[in-house]
UniProtKB/TrEMBL annotation:
Reactions this protein catalyses: (S)-muconolactone = (4,5-dihydro-5-oxofuran-2-yl)-acetate
Enzyme Commission number: 5.3.3.4
Protein name stated in the entry: Muconolactone Delta-isomerase
Pathway assignment: Aromatic compound metabolism; beta-ketoadipate pathway; 5-oxo-4,5-dihydro-2-furylacetate from catechol: step 3/3
Keyword check for Signal: no
Annotated Muconolactone isomerase domain residues: 4-92
Organism (species): Pseudonocardia xishanensis
Keywords of this entry: Aromatic hydrocarbons catabolism, Isomerase
Subunit note: Homodecamer.
A Pfam family per the record: MIase
């Protein structure tokens, strides 16, 4: 059974990172995240306004699969991640 997680990712790239290395890193991160989005496991990604951060919703088979996805992020070394497991809310009319 698939489980939902909200994942906040705060990125802090070194200011002295070589511009070519930065561009390559960001291109690899974008391709990687879009691959998981196309798979249906990375359901949504939203920018946190005014921050170099995003809030994403994942639908995965459990902790192990989410861990696999997050550990594969090219930006992982520069990212602080907060994971929140989600459960159905009894007042959600969409769940009806």
């Amino acid at each position: 059974m698939a489980e939902l997680y909200a994942v906040r990712m705060d990125v802090a790239l070194p200011p002295d990172l070589d511009p070519a290395a930065r561009a390559d890193l960001l291109a690899r991160e974008k391709a990687y995240s879009q691959e998981w989005q196309r798979s249906g496991h990375w359901k949504s990604i939203r920018r946190c306004v005014g921050e170099y951060a995003n809030l994403s919703i994942f639908e995965v088979e459990g902790n192990a699969q989410l861990h696999e996805i997050l550990w594969g992020l090219p930006l992982l070394a520069y990212t602080t991640i907060t994971v929140t497991p989600l459960a159905q809310h009894p007042s959600d009319i969409a769940a009806g």
